[in-house]
Write a structure and sequence with these properties.
With about 150 residues, the protein is mostly helical. It contains 6 helices and 2 strands. The longest helix is centred in the C-terminal third of the chain and has 17 residues. The chain starts with a helix and ends in a 13-residue tail after the last helix. The relative contact order is 0.14.
Amino acid sequence: MLTKKGKYGLKALVDLARLPQGETAFVTEIAARNNIPKKFLDTILLELRNTGILRSKKGPNGGYSLSKTPSEIMIGQVIRTLDGPLAPIRCASRTAFEACDDCDHPETCQVRVSMTDVRDAIATILDNMTLAQFVAKGGHEPLVLPAIK
């Protein structure tokens, strides 16, 4: 499930993607336009800056902007940055695997096997969706994805 942190981060990126190229926005402006608590947004934008998704500039003409074009920013990377692994349960995660206390055979556990398929489906969608496509979803542009196995 997408957390508020992930949701607010995506809303902020959409806001920044809609700015004319080269323009920046202050945290207070982004927060006000998107009904996001400013203190929480400060933390979110800092994380996105630290991972190279955003850049920031100080001063009267400062603020935040995208560090790449919207077509170069993948939604899967954004969500992993803010919310962690995409897997619905820890034992199905590729990057943060953690065995369940009640499971003696994770390699054959039907819950884990099924949730791994769910993780793969989520990753297929989010890792192939750019911020540009995400922004265009407001105009209902269809997303073309590779076939899910």
